[in-house]
Design goal:
This protein is an alpha/beta fold and about 180 residues long. The protein has one domain: Flavodoxin domain (Rossmann fold, 3-Layer(aba) Sandwich). It has six helices and five strands; from the N terminus they run βαβααβαβαβα. Strand 3, helix 4 (about 90-100) and strand 4 (about 115-120) form a beta-alpha-beta unit. Helix 1 (about 15-30) packs across helix 6. The chain starts with a strand and ends in a 7-residue tail after the last helix.
Length: about 180
């Protein structure tokens, strides 16, 4: 099984990146082929609202790296999406990626059968980011198999909070069972 861990945080090697990597390490140990990418490492222009994609199913913006990242997402069987909470939503770089899939609306089955799991990293809430990402996934028929919210604000907070690390490990086990990598205990 191909598992892509995708961090939507603009902060390199921060709590969101590390949370996704913790989950990937556990899934790799169970036999999954894993890879990690950061949305922020791809130059993705914001949607221009031209609605050309609603005629063709493809985005008319061709001079960025959206398609390159989308190709990686489409090659995976399971996507672990990590996003910090910025003003009750995913950060702009993650939202740009989500917005650019608008053309999928013509063929809502493009994500059907893909499994997704969501990690929100927040100072105190996080449900809002879950809701925004889940709404996007629901529209396109993707299967959300698990979600978790961990609390960490400053860089390095996650590693200083063993309880949050344990939540991620339990989350990884839940994902492994629901994705068929591991039998339920």
């Amino acid at each position: 099984m191909r598992v892509l861990g995708l961090s939507g945080s603009p902060r390199r090697d921060g709590n969101t990146d590390n949370a996704v990597k913790i989950v990937l390490e556990i899934l790799r140990g169970l036999g999954a082929e894993t890879s990690f990418l950061r949305v922020g490492d791809f130059h993705i222009e914001p949607c221009r609202g031209c609605r050309d994609c609603m005629k063709t199913g493809e985005c008319s913006i061709k001079d960025d790296e959206f398609q390159k990242l989308l190709d990686e997402v489409m090659k995976s069987n399971l996507l672990i999406l990590g996003a910090p909470v910025y003003w009750f939503a995913p950060p702009g770089i993650m939202k740009n990626f989500i917005d650019r899939t608008h053309g999928f609306y013509l063929d809502k089955s493009r994500l059907r059968g893909k499994m997704f799991a969501i990690i929100s990293v927040a100072a105190d809430s996080g449900f809002e980011t879950h809701e925004r990402i889940m709404s996007w996934l629901r529209v396109y028929g993707a299967t959300l198999i698990a979600k978790v919210r961990v609390y960490a604000r400053e860089k390095g907070d996650l590693e200083r909070r063993p309880h949050e690390i344990q939540k991620l490990k339990r989350f990884a086990e839940e994902v492994a069972v629901k994705a068929g990598l591991k039998r339920p205990v």
